[in-house]
Every structure is written in C-alpha cells, then in structure tokens.
Amino acid sequence: MRKRSRRYQATQAKTKNIVFTNKEEAINILKETATAKFVESVELHANLNIDPKYADQQLRTTVTLPHGIGKSIKIAVLTNENNIIEAQNGGADIVGSNELIEQISQGNINFDLLIATPDMMPKLAKLGRVLGPKGLMPSPKSGTVTTNLVETIADFKKGKFEYKADKTGVVHISFGKSNFSDIQLIENLTTLYQSIEQNRPSGVKGKYFKNIFICTSMGPAIQLDLNIFN
Question: In the UniProt record, does the keyword Metal-binding occur (predicted)?
Fold first, then answer.
C-alpha cells in the first residue's frame, strides 16, 4: 500500500467519516485542507440518482455563479461574414467563418468555449468527433447556439458555464478558488445546488441526490448532509 504523506493524513483526519450539516463549518474545513503551494480550485461532486443513457434522465444545462469560478475563458465565435465585426466588438477572442472550421478540423483548438450562430451549425456537423469529446460542440440547450452574439459573449465572460452529469450520473464542477471568501464560496455552492435541483430530469423517480461532496483540487472529500441546503 502506498504510504500517504503527513499532509494528506492530517487533512484527511479532519474529514474522514464526518457528514457536515453546516455550510459555514464545511467551507471552513475545506479551506483548512487547502494546503498546496498554489491556489487550489474548489470542486463539487454530486452523485445523482439518474441513468444518463436514457434521454429523460440526462442533465445538461448552464449556470452563472454570483462570484464566478476565478478563471477567465477564451471564447471563439463561429459565424458568417456579416456578424464578424459584431462578435469582435462584443469581446470574442477568436472570430471566424469557414476558415475557423478548417482550423478546428486540423486540430487547432485554442479556445475554451465555442459559440455559433444557427446558420453555421450544418457546417459544424462534420466536426462532432473533434469537438464532442472535448465538450466544445455548440448546442441550443447550453446557450452556445445563438443569434444574440453580444449578450451571449458577455454572459459567458461574466462566468456563465455549462455542466452535465457524466455517464455514471455524477456531476463534477468547479465552483471557485480556495482564496475566495467564505461567503463567496457559500453563495456559489448554494447557487450551484439550486441549479442542479431546478434542472432535475423528468425521468427521475424518487430520491434525486444520492450524496454530495466538496473538496479542493488536492484536498480530501468533504461530505455534505443533503439537508444542508434546506
């Protein structure tokens, strides 16, 4: 068995076999266990009672956290020639039409989010195998297929992002950084929980949440009581 470091053992001792019933206490412990030499991301892992192989049990939506996640994103916009100036003025980092499609097809993907106007979607279909596995394929449901480029770019620049459950029904999401204030993390966490709850798939029967954990990118899992948000 691999020997655990003293740092790991010390942080795990603060969370092992404990289910936290108070947000403030959970966030306090989370920040105490953020002992890496860099600013760690703060993550939520929600295990849901869903089976995503069924269409009515899939979770894929967007959320805007009140304090963002502490990361700026590079946005690319795929649109026709008539909208290029509008997208550039709206704050897009990369804007293009057919030439951008060609770059993507060659594997040149140097952006974090791709927004497209509806007229360009048929041309993007052939790139599904390239963009899909990276979670970059635009879709109306995620808000990344739009005719309102300026507003959409602004929303995503402010911190709007898409999330979805993986094939096992677990949602993994970053909701801030370890140097955020306690209030910022609590408000982001609460907003995120509410978003997952409000977008409960229609096919869910009975209990929706199995369990919820939070952690820093290098810290131990902290289990939250499911009544903590009530």
Answer: no
Closest CA to 153 of 89, 60, 218, 81: 89
Closest CA to 220 of 8, 17, 25, 28: 8
Residue type present at position 29 = I
Q: What percent of the chain has pLDDT over 70?
A: 94
Domains defined for the chain, CATH in brackets? 11-69+161-229 (3.30.190.20), 75-158 (3.40.50.790)
15-48: per-residue pLDDT in tens? Answer: 777 899 999 999 999 999 888 889 999 999 999 9
- The DSSP string of 133-173 is GGT----TTTT-B-S-HHHHHHHHHTTEEEEEB-TTSEEEE
